[in-house]
Amino acid sequence: MAALRLVSWNVNGIRACWKKGFLDIFKAQKPDAVCIQEVKASEEDVPKELSYVPGYSLFHFPAKKKGYAGTAIYSRIKPLAVVYGINEKRFDDEGRTITLEFDKFYLVNAYFPNSQHGLGRLDFKLEYDKLILQYLKRLEKSKPVVVCGDFNVAHKDIDLANPRQNEKNAGFTIQERDWFTDFLSKGFVDTFRMFESGAGHYTWWGYRFNLRARNIGWRVDYFAVSEPLRKNIVSSPILKDVKGSDHAPILLELNI
Asked: Which of 32, 129, 150, 190 is an active site residue?
């Protein structure tokens, strides 16, 4: 079995992140694939330094709305197939999902909708949640799945610094959390929790009030794998010291 290193990172704008050292992740982690969310750039807006990272192919799925959402994957392994979207226009227009098929598994990069202040997009998010779970289960009929990205939900109280104050807020509503519980019950593994059961581990911090330095954050970025891949997981840390975005990148190392 070969060891694979996968990175997932909500970059909150690839061009802004690039100016803050985005390309350093390739040197530091030597990843086989880097899945990014919230690219916020069309293909023509991506600088050539980001379009042609030596040794990697770029698969980019921008939103139709300029400067909004979008996903991309850098891979140094040639995929058997690439699928953009989940065949649902309202979500695919926002560039939310890319799938690479490899020999032994599917890699799905997903940027889940944010329910937004006032929960104005809660129903939209819950519909995406439902449809992507159905999509992942269809993929599993042929081979296991690794799904990663910004899920825009903190699953349990230990996954955010202030759970009581956020019980009815976007990303911590009972509906979103119940979906995540159901997602895991359908045969997916939250890989970070294979290694760490405690609180205080976050992947997103607001920019104001020095929240990152104070570690007042949320864990909303995940690697999840089909249950048969549990035995293949080597590590799944949060790269909390990597700056460049309001999210930290996360890493999955697996033997496959």
From this structure: 150
